[in-house]
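Anyone opening a protein record will find just a pair of labelled lines. A complete record is shown below as an example:
=====
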Amino acid sequence: MNSIQTSRFQTILKWFVPLAAVLAFAAWMYISPEGALGKLDAVGYAVCHRIDARSFHIDDRQLPLCARCTGEFYAAGIALVFQGFASRKRSKLPSRGIIAVLVFFFLAFGIDGSNSYLYLLKQSTPGALDQIPNLYVPNNILRLFTGSGMGLALAIVLYPIVNQTLWRDMDGRPALEWKTFGALIGLTILVNLLILIDSPIVLYPIAYVSALGTLSLLVIVFAILWIMIMKQDNTFEHPKQLWLPILAGLTLALLMILGIDLFRLQLTGTWSGFPGLG
């Protein structure tokens, strides 16, 4: 493709991607439940089982994501924003010590998730599974803390990889060091404790942050995929230049959420958790 064809193609994309984004957003707004929290429910619906008993509530109103996913995606969202301010264009993975802590978070997430899933199977399909022992009785406190640990791990690993893909001039220092890592963990623990107070003053913002954290992760992944397909790796010098990949990522993320929502709604007939699971 010569330079003239490339220029024409880029011009077409600059018109097509915004139009596709508007259409995808309009379709999602039309399909998703009414109200602001209903729109957040539609985001959670695409990635989370949304079982009522395994979720936090504002009065009788279930949050968009279960306790584990709430922790995972709010923590990932906060960690991405935190690194955006603290780390800028730093592109090196954290030290081995920090990675070891992240591996521990990952293992805790896997162990608690597996134990919780086994407990769910025993509750929903009694019989032969009754004899399978659980390590412990799962609860929403453990789901929240192991989920938020996993969210930190995802964001802390993803952030420098994104920087390695985007920038022409990268900062070769680690994206997080022990001081900033400790601050991020402390912030997460504080937010978790506030969530456990079960106050609407905390849970309303967390509903938004967790759903937007979910959407942000999807947008970032699809935007990076777009950049790789367009062969624009390491060509960006300023965040303002990222508007088209981010908009393309948002479009693809909304289309994925819309597709999963429609499939699951057709399958279950409800925006709530999977029928028969509790």
Observations:
- Strands lie at 57-58, 61-62, 90-92, 171-174.
- The mean pLDDT is 92.
- The longest strand covers residues 171-174.
- The radius of gyration is 20 Å.
